[in-house]
Amino acid sequence: MKLDSLKALNAERRARRAAVLLTDLATGADRLVREDDVIAGELGDAVKKAFRTGISGTVQADGASWFLNASLPRPRLVVVGAVHISQALAPMAKVAGFDMEIIDPRTAFATAERFPGVPLYADWPEPVLAAKPLDAYTALAALTHDPKIDDFALKAALDAGCFYLGALGSRKTHAGRVERLRADGASPEQIGQIHAPIGLDIGASSPAEIAVAVLAEVVRALRTRGLGEAGKARAA
Which PANTHER family match (predicted)? Predict the structure, then answer.
């Protein structure tokens, strides 16, 4: 790897942006590819797959051998609400490779005793997300049922382009949420990105089962980015 390529790759890592370093195995020439770069042909398909999976390796494409070094930010799961679902979700998310953190200004719920070893912010989402901004490799789950807490975080996630947004509540609850987000400037296209009710429909009832459904939906959203609806249906 050339020094300039390494410096560029490290800069993308520091900024929590995904990148793939392409190396032509015949010549040793390399170049850094970012997610919004357009590459045609078989190599382009291989690069898209590397961005979805984060898996590095050798591919044969367009009559040449390439090594794709995929560098994806570690996925982050921000949960708004120190509730029972969050307690079950925290250890699962860790095992699945997510950096999870919890935001809840209700200090009776947001305690280290209930969430050992989990980054916990007993504050409103506004100051927390100003200090730790959301990004495209962050998923946000709003679980408080309280618009005063959830709505700001959801709008911030929409504006940041988070790869997943989910909100707890019935369809009637979500209808009211939609109206508030529209009033706050969210577009219909943005609002359509919110998974509500949150989680895959597996008939979950207990907090632990709902946590499983949420995490499964988050993982699916992460691994099907850029596939389009048809591709997502095949991956389901």
Answer: ALDEHYDE OXIDOREDUCTASE MOLYBDENUM COFACTOR ASSEMBLY PROTEIN (PTHR30388), MOLYBDENUM COFACTOR INSERTION CHAPERONE PAOD (PTHR30388:SF4)
- Yes or no: domain 76-223 corresponds to CATH 3.40.50.720: yes
Distance, CA of 128 to CA of 99 (rounded, Å): 16
Cα distances (Å, whole numbers) of residue 207 to 144, 199, 217: 13, 12, 15
Q: Where are the domains of the chain?
A: 3-71, 76-223
Averaged pLDDT for residues 148-175: 95
Residue environment code for 100-109, b if the CB has 16+ CB neighbours within 10 A, otherwise e: bbbbbbeeeb
Dump pLDDT digits (tens) for 66-110. Answer: 999 999 999 999 999 999 999 999 999 999 999 999 999 999 999
Q: Is 67 helix (H, G, I), strand (E, B) or coil?
A: strand
pTM, rounded to two decimals: 0.86
Tens-digit pLDDT profile for residues 136-149: 999 999 999 999 99
**Which residues does residue 139 pair with via DSSP β-bridges, in sequence order?**
77, 164
Residues near 223 by beta carbon (within 8 Å), at least 6 away in sequence = 52, 53, 235
